[in-house]
Specification:
The protein has a single domain (about 10-150), classed as Trna Endonuclease, Chain: A, domain 1 (3-Layer(aba) Sandwich), CATH 3.40.1350. With about 150 residues, it is of the alpha+beta class. It has helices spanning about 30-45, 110-135, 145-150; strands at about 10, 25-30, 45-50, 55-60, 65-70, 75-80, 85-90, 140-145. It comes from marine metagenome.
Length: about 150
């Protein structure tokens, strides 16, 4: 399922390319929120390494009954305040995409159907990502605009 529009897309050039796990000359963001995360990971000294869409996780798409690939937004390795190294797999989504959609007056049926499919697909992806992370000792997080405001 493709996004309806990608109004804010571009390439990110890191200030600290050695921190990037992958090809630092080809880092693509698909939203302003992803770009903000990239900047945060790049310049934050507690972030030791980071990657954007560099790994794929198989997931079962319950709508099509097929196994597909999910490319999470970010994988980061951080040094915690107590000196521990932790790895996080992070997906960036608007908070509205994490709640079941609600139809209503004035809302087109096609919009509600699109939102229902997107919600279900995210649920399938996140379930597989949590399992994948649990098997590897990685923390799975979904960041919303609220998380990004806290990060600055």
């Amino acid at each position: 399922m493709k996004e309806r529009s990608q109004k804010y897309k571009g390439k990110y050039t890191p200030e600290h390319p050695a921190k990037y796990m992958g090809d630092s000359s080809n880092i693509v963001y698909r939203s302003m929120w992803e770009r903000r995360c990239m900047k945060y990971f790049d310049v934050n000294p507690s972030v030791l390494q980071w990657a954007s869409e560099e790994i794929s996780i198989p997931y079962y798409d319950s709508m099509t009954k097929k196994v597909r690939k999910y490319f999470p937004d970010f994988l980061i390795k951080v040094k915690t305040a107590n000196g521990e190294d932790k790895t996080h797999l992070i997906e960036v989504k608007p908070s509205k995409d994490l709640r079941p959609p609600v139809g209503g007056r004035g809302k087109k049926k096609s919009t509600v159907l699109y939102e229902m499919k997107a919600y279900r697909m995210n649920r399938d992806k996140f379930a597989s990502a949590r399992k994948w992370c649990d098997e590897r000792g990685i923390i799975f997080d979904v960041w919303t605009e609220k998380h990004l405001k806290q990060k600055g």
